[in-house]
Design a protein that fits this description.
MetI-like fold; four-stranded antiparallel sheet; two-stranded antiparallel sheet; 11 helices; General L-amino acid transport system permease protein
Length: about 400
């Protein structure tokens, strides 16, 4: 018998298991070294001009006013409180901008694919105009050419319970009361029941081939259960305050300033054009065989879109929508151009007063990074729920 060959061990520098790990360690070490050099050079430069790096200045008195603060704030509060106001203002315009841009973008994207010639052309013109116009220019136009030329507050325009003037808009708003906590629990139960009814009716529609109107059934269930809860508790989930014009001012309701409206409307319109194209591309990426199958089964266009086409397109749409949401959050920094004091506007004021440029910039970077990572996390979770599970 031929002698047995001895097992030769693969050298570590040729191992497929250890070489990638070693390369990653070397890469991280290089990045860490570059960051260390950058930080050391920065600290040396600060010492040369007689400055130090630190965040102790945040406890100093701010001394400046913020026009539209969503949380309690006064000029005697510290810088950290002012920065918190800016963060909340950024979150406010970004949150409502994402919701409105998504709704409008989906509707415009579907309208562009409509068989109705007029509706399709209007959607196309809407997309072409606002997508190809700089966002900052849209903010300026809305602020200086649309909202500021409105009548003074004494002659505010009244559109039902809504009032418009050169100071902005006043809209009806809800305020909480003692029973709102109980209503929050009841609403969770009601929403759960409505979702169950929707799924039950959808299952019947698929199995029996009849139009059971699952969405309308869920809405009806929600309204009926809310009505029953109102009869039991004797009050609603909130108190609605309606604005009233007193001649010299508008009292009650929620006031929305002209800068806030300009930024919110511009962000909504600009982002919705990109979302509309994402929706159109996602729907058109669904195999044509799926569309033809719905026609062969006698589905109406709206039913086919709701039950077959859009659920498949959503898997393509979500990843690209995430990028647009992140762009909207970062584009909110343009609000300082018209005086809406979000994190960048407040940060610039803090820099001018304290002289701590580097520290404030680090705070602003951290805020946008946190918002972006949080948005990406939620969208990734949402995306996993729509992914196809392969066997």
């Amino acid at each position: 018998m031929p002698p047995k060959e001895e097992n030769k061990k693969t050298p570590i520098w040729r191992s497929r298991k250890f070489v990638p790990v070693i390369l990653q360690i070397i890469f991280l070490a290089i990045i860490g070294l570059l960051l260390w050099i950058l930080i050391q050079n920065t600290m040396t430069g600060l010492r040369r001009i007689g400055m130090s790096f630190g965040f102790d200045f945040l406890n100093a008195r701010a001394g400046f006013n913020i026009n539209e603060a969503m949380i309690e704030y006064s000029t005697s509060d510290p810088y950290v409180r002012a920065i918190m106001v800016g963060i909340v203002s950024t979150l406010r315009v970004s949150f409502f901008g994402i919701i409105l841009a998504t709704i409008i973008g989906v509707l415009v994207g579907i309208a562009k694919m409509s068989d109705n010639w007029l509706l399709s052309k209007v959607a196309s013109v809407y997309i072409d105009i606002f997508r190809n116009t700089p966002l900052l220019l849209q903010i300026f136009v809305l602020n200086f050419a649309v909202f500021l030329p409105l009548p003074r507050i004494q002659e505010a325009l009244s559109i039902g319970p809504f009032y418009l003037s050169n100071r902005g808009a006043v809209i009806p708003w809800a305020t909480l009361h003692e029973g709102s906590a109980l209503w929050a629990l009841l609403l969770l139960v009601v929403i759960g029941a409505a979702i169950w009814v929707y799924k039950w009716q959808m299952k019947r529609e698929v199995e029996e081939g009849k139009n059971t109107h699952p969405f309308l059934s869920a809405i009806g269930t929600f309204i009926l259960l809310c009505g029953a809860a109102y009869l039991v508790t004797g009050e609603g989930p909130f108190q609605l305050t309606i604005p009233a014009h007193t001649g010299a001012a508008v009292t009650g309701g929620l006031s929305l300033s002209t800068p806030f409206l300009s930024v919110l409307v511009a962000l909504t319109i600009f982002t919705s054009t990109y979302i509309a194209e994402i929706v159109r591309g996602g729907v058109q990426a669904v195999p044509k065989g799926q569309v033809e199958a719905t026609k062969a089964l006698g589905f109406r266009s709206a039913t086919a879109m709701r039950l077959v086409i859009f659920p498949q397109a959503i898997r393509i749409i979500i990843p690209q929508m995430t990028s647009q949401y992140l762009n909207l959050i970062k584009n909110s920094s343009l609000a300082m151009a018209v005086g809406y004091q979000e994190i960048v506007g407040v940060g610039n004021t803090v820099i001018n007063q304290s002289g701590r440029t580097l520290e404030v910039i680090v705070i602003m970077i951290a805020v946008y990074l946190f918002f972006s990572l949080t948005t990406s996390l939620f969208m990734n979770i949402f995306n996993k729920k729509f992914q196809l599970v392969e066997r």
